[in-house]
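task queued by scheduler; priority normal; single chain, no ligands, no partner chains; default sampling; output format set to structure tokens
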Amino acid sequence: MAFLIDSDKCIGCGACAFVCLFDVPVPTDENKLKYIIDIKNCLGCGQCEDVCPNNAIFPAPGHKRIAKVFIDQDKCIGCSICARVCVTKAPQGKVREPFTIDQSKCIQCGLCAAKCKHEAIIVEYLD
């Protein structure tokens, strides 16, 4: 669940930094001629890959892009942690009742799954 930037292809446009809700792509220097991604901070949503005009961004080796995130209704206890950490407010529901993911809002970043203490959030990956 992480992406990298090919520095030979990066043109320094900053589109990746603009769309990243987590401020992961950063300039390599003060002139902003190239950008890098620290894979330890990248959640793997792929928003940056989608907007890169020069196809310089790709999944890190051994990582796959998230296809879909959903909540197992049998495991969800309605704690609302997923809703509190989601930057797009995709998890919907009432406290103490199972939540669901509004797929129209979900950016497939996986942050909710990483924070869920009950393993109720399922992440499916692209092949």
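post-processing summary
- The chain is about 15% helix and 20% strand.
- The longest strand covers residues 66-71.
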